[in-house]
Design a protein that fits this description.
Elements: E1 5-8, H1 33-42, E2 46-52, H2 63-78, E3 86-90, H3 113-121, E4 130-133, H4 136-144, E5 148-152, H5 157-164, E6 174-176, H6 179-191
Parallel strand pairs: 1-2, 1-4, 2-3, 4-5, 5-6
Helix pairs in contact: 1-6
């Protein structure tokens, strides 16, 4: 049976936006992240991370650090009984330093390659799925994939909302303060729950 998914950006949405996470010590979950993901887990949503990690192509950090960070993230989330079902990331950049990753690709957001990868691995109910992120590129990816995009004001979200979106031809489907509010909004919209937060 198909399940709806929530495709979640990583940096600035799940963890503090610090530019490039070039050391594991720089990875810090934003408040409420574990609770948000657990809520989505409990209500039957696949939780899938979709992230641009061009620092690999740029030579800022090795591929194994990205994997190490994701393993660390999973451990932190497990403390809140939260689970990520899949992680898909793009290590490419057209003008990168490392030839093996320096190319134009179909997986770098706002292109939809990461979502297509997830659809190959999971039986996803796309009609009831969402994208959550802090950048206009996340919202553009959502639009291209015919998904509802929810912009969070963490990370680059507030700045993009104020300075970038006014010049674009599209806007987020919904805007919230953070990932927890986004998860609550999704659950409320799709379950009829009127109040999730006191």
């Amino acid at each position: 049976m198909k399940k709806p998914a929530v495709f979640i950006d990583r940096d600035g949405t799940i963890n503090e936006q610090m530019g490039y996470i070039n050391h594991i010590s720089r990875f810090m979950l934003l408040p409420g992240t574990g609770e948000a993901i657990r809520l989505l887990n409990e209500h039957g949503y696949l939780v899938i991370i979709v992230s641009n990690q061009s620092g690999v192509a740029r030579g800022y950090f090795p591929m194994n650090l990205v994997n190490e960070v994701h393993e660390h993230m999973m451990v932190l989330l497990e403390r809140d009984n939260a689970r990520v079902d899949g992680i898909f990331f793009c290590p490419h950049y057209p003008k990168g330093k490392l030839p093996e990753y320096s190319r134009a690709c179909e997986c770098r957001k706002p292109k939809t390659g990461l979502i297509r990868m997830a659809c190959r691995d999971f039986d996803i109910d796309m009609a009831n799925s969402y994208v959550i992120g802090d950048r206009c590129t996340d919202m553009e990816m959502a639009r291209k994939a015919d998904l509802k995009g929810i912009l969070v004001k963490t990370g680059y979200g507030l700045g993009d909302l104020e300075y970038v979106f006014p010049d674009l031809t599209f806007e987020p489907f919904h805007v919230v303060d953070d990932l927890l509010y986004a998860a609550e909004w999704i659950v409320k919209k799709n379950s009829g729950i009127q109040e999730l937060r006191n």
